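README: folding subset

This subset contains proteins for which both the sequence and a predicted structure token string are available. Records are stored as plain text. Below is the entry for Inner membrane-spanning protein YciB (211 residues), shown exactly as it appears on disk.
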Amino acid sequence: MKKILFDFFPLLVFFGCYKYGGMHADATAALVNAHLSGVMAGGTATAEQAPMVLATIAGMLANAGQIVYLLARGRKVDFMLWLSLFFFVVFGGLTIYFHDEIFIKWKPTLIYWCFGVGLLGARYLFNRNAIRQTMGAQLELPDDVWERLNLMWTAFFISLGFINLFVAFVLFKGDTPSWVSFKAFGATALTFVFIVGQTFYLAKYIKDEEA
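--- output ---
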């Protein structure tokens, strides 16, 4: 449970700050304009734009704080955290500078696609099955099953990237609060459903191994 909360900490911070900023839009705009005017185009953000600016910088700090915490404790920092921080800094920085949410809406998609392409690249360029390397210590499965799992995760990440774009720019076009809620809960629910489905798929192989 602690690991799950730790992994989702920046997302929860982002969601909480955005909702708080939306409920206190004028005060958030005053806060953002007082402290971030030097890094925003035009020097000011409107009450409508300010909650996203606040949430973005809070999410960036939360992500960076995770890495600092792990390094301070002498623990390994997962590549996913570094990748997330990189995209947060780049696209979060653009979001803050232009006070435009379009950049931060692209961030999840690019991360998902990086994971998907990374899985394919590792398998077919370096002959490494990243899913097997991650889960191999806990499971013993036939080689063909590991290959299917790798392709399943690849397809899931790429599909999730497209789903995020559809939700952000088609389904909830112009409705940023709904997209923020999807990012916090919808994408998480889809991931949970995928993992549950994968567990059912692997059940027969686990039973065969135990037998």
